[in-house]
Write a structure and sequence with these properties.
The complex is a heterodimer of chains A (261) and B (300). Chain A has 261 residues and is mainly alpha-helical. Chain A has ten helices and two strands; from the N terminus they run H-H-E-E-H-H-H-H-H-H-H-H. Chain B has ten helices and twelve strands. The radius of gyration of chain B is 23 Å and the shape is globular. Classes of the chains: A mainly alpha (261), B alpha/beta (300).
């Protein structure tokens, strides 16, 4: 077991190094959300409620979708590419435990997720009057949202990695799903103003709950009544994220493919 | 007594395969299945270099990937270093610690340097070789600090070999290892393989190159359409050792040719006829390639 963790940590360091060396992926993963933040933050300047600007609403949503980008999107694209390149097959032929491979993946997700969250928090605070969580209970909510959100995103990314038929096509399959979910889940638009069917659809998936959770962290509690359920629904968020983590883990265990054949 | 001997033989075999079959569903085939491997029996002794020869699609890679544990056989018995690769259970890591695999085309880790890749892989094994020695051995010293993406096809292949041997394997699988090598690199690679053999490594090699099989292998097996056509030494394959020799020479401005079981006698006869020097004399036997092409031509 110690050996599995030791190799997992080594893989995490190696994967992080590889990630940092791919300038395109660094820019796409870390800079793109910031660019979006500036575009949306500059276009929509309205107040949604007294003391709540659209940019604050949007930053909360972008921090939530950052968890989806660095976990789900990154892994669901990266793993099929590694399958194509023979990386996974080669690893499978070594004594390395599959668990170490997933530890390595979790580490690269965690590192990019933390980097992205810190950048968005900083940009949000400096340019868009994002208030840091105002109490220790809000910090606690922020913490469990990040932990559960990134675990959920990671296992679903691993589960979904069996869907794209090739590494080259993975981005074309995965990215639209993420973008549509962002539109439906209250990242780019105010969730309560979306059509009812869209809200219902989004409520199936974790992103809607993560964005709502992040709003509960960064927006004043008085804003809760503006949510569709008139509340932050913390307990329900916890339950739904946990359910997706269990489902994602079970699907991953059943469907993960070590080679392209 | 006989059982005892048989057991000894089994213990000294690195690989033993009995009646191995691998079928895939195939709607166009009459039986609804296609046999990629169609009843193979084969043993590879410890310390031996065994070359599996055969055209594309003959079943070489399928067979090797079953031995490596990547695929499950449809039926048949397989033992690799005493393990059943299709059912490793808790011994997967122990098994893979003792084998080395050089797959066909891989294209990974482009953003790492050669040295980083080799060092990293060395950490997976309980008894790794020194990464620097392995880099030297495969001739990548000048490229040690270069990114993998900057390597030529042949250099990449040498990195694959480096990663295959870093764990000091008892048994090394090489699937078409020298594809894309220039002749010089191929010679250097053969030297490396002989060094490994001298250190006691068992090697199962698949190749398209007959000269490679002849230079390296103790025994060769020719496979076509999922069946073994013959297993023999390179020198004896297809009755090559007993095939007629061909004596050719120039006479009266034309090339003459005689097929004979006794070329020495023929040369002596010619020598006395020409009073010493026979013009442009050659004595050849069928090459391994001639024999091989005849075999798979008949098998296909």
């Amino acid at each position: 077991m110690r050996e599995i963790i030791r190799i997992g940590l080594l893989r995490g360091a190696l994967e992080t190094k590889q990630f940092m060396r791919q300038r395109e992926s660094v820019v796409f993963t870390l800079a793109f959300p910031v660019i979006l933040l500036f575009i949306f933050g500059s276009v929509f300047k309205d107040n949604l409620a007294p003391g709540v600007t659209f940019s604050q609403y949007f930053v909360a949503g972008m921090i939530a979708s950052g968890l989806v980008n660095t976990g789900f999107q990154q892994l669901a694209i990266m793993i099929p590419m590694e399958r194509d390149f023979g990386t996974i097959k080669r690893l499978r032929g070594t004594p390395m435990s599959p668990v170490s491979y997933f530890i390595g993946k979790s580490i690269v997700v965690t590192v990019t997720m933390l980097a992205q969250t810190v950048i968005l928090l900083a940009v949000g605070a400096i340019f868009f009057k994002l208030n840091m969580p105002s109490s220790s209970s809000k910090w606690l909510t922020f913490l469990w949202l990040i932990v559960l959100g990134s675990i959920c995103s990671t296992v679903l990314g691993i589960a979904f990695s069996s869907v794209p038929k090739s590494g080259r096509g993975a981005s074309a399959v995965v990215s639209p799903i993420v973008i549509i979910l962002q539109f439906f889940s209250g990242v780019f638009f105010v969730f309560s103003s979306l059509p009812h069917w869209m809200q219902q659809f989004a409520a199936i998936f974790p992103l809607k709950w993560l964005t709502q959770g992040m709003r509960s962290v960064f927006l004043p509690d008085t804003f809760a009544v503006k949510e569709v359920a008139k509340s932050w629904e913390g307990g329900r968020t916890l339950a739904i994220l946990s359910a997706w983590i269990i489902a994602g883990t079970l699907i991953s265990l059943r469907t993960f493919k070590w080679s392209e054949k | 007594m006989l059982d005892h001997l048989r057991q000894d033989a089994a213990m000294s075999d690195a690989i033993s395969i009995t009646a191995l079959r691998k079928q895939y569903p195939d709607k166009s085939a009459p039986a609804g299945v296609k046999s990629a491997v169609d009843g193979i029996d084969l043993t590879v002794a410890s310390g031996e270099i065994f070359a599996l020869l055969g055209p594309n699609g003959a079943g070489k890679t399928t067979t090797v990937e079953i031995l490596e544990g990547y695929r499950e056989p449809t039926s048949g018995e397989v033992r690799v270093l005493g393990f059943n690769p299709a059912d490793l259970g808790n011994s997967a890591s122990e098994f893979r610690n003792r084998i080395g695999i050089v797959l066909q085309s891989t294209n990974d880790a482009a953003d790492l340097s050669v040295q980083e890749s080799v060092r990293h892989f060395s950490k997976y094994y309980t008894n790794p070789k020194d990464p620097e020695e392995v880099i030297d051995a495969v001739g990548l010293r000048e490229k040690a600090k270069s990114k993998v993406r900057s390597l030529s096809g042949g250099q990449r292949r040498r990195l694959d070999v480096a990663l295959g041997i870093i764990g000091t394997p008892e048994l090394l699988f090489l699937d078409e290892p020298t594809t894309g090598f220039d002749p010089e690199a191929r010679r250097a690679f053969w030297g490396l393989i002989r060094t490994l053999r001298d250190a006691g490594t068992t090697i199962l090699l698949t190749t398209h190159y007959l000269d490679e099989a002849e230079a390296l292998a103790d025994r060769v097996g020719v496979i076509a359409n999922g069946k073994i056509l013959e297993i023999s030494t390179p020198a004896n394959l297809g009755g090559r050792n007993s095939a007629k020799a061909i004596v050719t020479w120039n006479e009266d401005g034309a090339r003459r040719e005689v097929h004979t079981d006794d070329p020495t006698k023929e040369v002596l006869r010619l020598s006395s006829r020409f009073d010493g020097n026979i013009p442009e004399l050659t004595v050849t036997r069928p090459t391994l390639e001639d024999i091989y092409l005849r075999m798979i031509g008949g098998g296909a």
